[in-house]
Write a structure and sequence with these properties.
By secondary structure, the protein is of the alpha/beta class. Helices cover about 40% and strands about 20% of the residues. It folds into three domains: about 15-85, Arc Repressor Mutant, subunit A (Orthogonal Bundle), CATH 1.10.10.10; about 90-205 and about 380-390, ATPase, nucleotide binding domain (Nucleotidyltransferase, domain 5, 2-Layer Sandwich); about 215-375, 2-Layer Sandwich (Nucleotidyltransferase, domain 5), CATH 3.30.420.
């Protein structure tokens, strides 16, 4: 015997899986719409009234939803609306960046409860992991004092770090963070914290934040272009976030394109459109804690160097937007990231007149470009959103056999 034969087949369903899916359907309906009655939930989800009643009773008993005061309608019996309990679940999100570690704690609604930062000064995982564990331990202790059931209802830790994943690179390559990728990070953190842990790239994490509390909230199909130290994209397709089998979906910064004024015919587009390239152009230190303020000041008083950089970055983003729209037909494209809002606004203002009109596309109701979250905490908040999403969002996989 050389091993168990791999058999290809489509998974069936079972009652347990269907019940888990239906629980998520109820939670997501309340997240998207606010308080709803049992009748509202049954009508919106197309579940039977008895199924909804059973789910509402279970979720109420678990402390995930709660009843509000009854509301008397014009006809019939008073209706009791239900809402999510913010303290029904908590999660942590960790951004492992080249120049900082950022930790965020959120509740079931995605509201930020705590933000903490440590700056590793480019240290590798051997030094960085103890610093991260110190952040997590201090945060859990602080939140346990302010939220009585925090540890009991802490459902996981999401981690975000730059991709692409699984790509060989030099041991100290600052772009790929190869030392961190080769380190048994998840195993060590899971053993030390006892938490369920998942990892994704920074663009995907920023997109999770947009889905939970940002511009993509409630959208079925959207693309988030993430402007950070590098350039990436997060894909929301048919109501679910797509990350790819290796977690590398949306690594648009690695796409090759001609960069005007360079000696090479082709180069990754993030060499022209990223904070790393902007810092190189303006001779800024990307590890500077005041980097946001310095970029804001540069945008407020643009130099020829900044204007040239914006021109080159706009050129790359323009054709990438064309490509993403052609591939995915999104409801909108959201520009977001670990970049100041002033920079995001410049790109939107520059890009909109350069893009051909799609006003005749059937069903378009949203602007073609939207500004998303733009702050240094967006990625860590998105990392914290991942456990919440895994715990509460409806997914087709939840109705399949495990």
């Amino acid at each position: 015997m050389t091993g168990e034969r791999k058999i290809r087949a489509t998974s069936g369903t079972n009652l347990g899986g269907a019940n888990a899916h239906n629980r998520r359907v109820i939670i997501e309906a309340l997240r998207l719409n606010g308080a709803l009655s049992r009748a509202d939930l049954a009508r919106a989800t197309q579940l039977t009234k008895q199924t909804v009643s059973n789910l509402v009773e279970d979720l109420t008993a678990e402390g995930l939803i709660r009843a509000l005061d009854s509301v008397r309608a014009t006809r019939g019996k008073p209706a009791t609306p239900y809402e999510l309990v913010p303290e029904g679940a908590f999660s942590l999100g960790l951004q492992i960046d080249r120049h900082a570690f950022r930790l965020v704690a959120v509740n079931l609604l995605g509201e930020v409860l705590l933000q903490r930062e440590a700056r590793p000064a480019g240290q590798g995982p051997e030094v960085g992991v103890p610093a991260i564990l110190g952040l997590i331990l201090a945060a859990r202790k602080e939140l346990a004092e302010t939220h009585r059931q925090f540890d009991k209802r802490l459902i996981g830790l999401g981690i975000a770090m730059p991709g692409p994943f699984g790509v060989d690179g030099a041991p100290d390559d600052p772009l790929s963070m190869s030392r961190w990728q080769r380190y048994p990070l998840l195993k060590e953190l899971a053993a030390a914290t006892g938490l369920d842990i998942a990892i994704r790239n920074d663009a995907s994490a920023a997109t999770s934040a947009e889905r939970l509390v940002g511009a993509a909230h409630g959208l079925d199909t959207a693309v988030c272009i993430y402007l950070g130290y590098g350039l990436g994209a997060g894909l929301i397709l048919n109501g679910e976030q797509f990350t790819g089998p290796n977690g590398n979906a949306g690594e648009i910064g690695m796409v090759l394109s001609h960069v005007p004024g360079t000696e090479q015919d082709v180069a990754p587009i993030e060499h022209a459109a990223s904070l790393a390239s902007l810092c190189a152009t303006l001779e800024l230190d990307p590890a500077d804690p005041e980097l946001f303020d310095r970029i804001d000041s540069a945008v407020a008083s643009p130099t020829p160097a900044l204007c040239d950089w914006v021109d080159g970055a706009t050129h790359q983003l323009r054709w990438m937007i064309h490509l993403l729209e052609s591939l995915f037909d999104p409801q909108t494209i959201i520009l977001c990231g670990s970049a100041p809002r002033s920079l995001i606004d410049i790109f939107i203002a520059r890009l909109e007149p350069l893009l051909p009109s799609l006003s005749d596309r059937p069903g378009r109701v949203l602007p073609r470009l939207l500004a998303g979250q733009s702050n240094q905490w967006a990625v860590a908040q998105g990392a914290a959103a991942e456990p919440i999403a895994r715990y509460s969002e409806p997914r087709y996989a939840t109705i399949l056999k495990s």
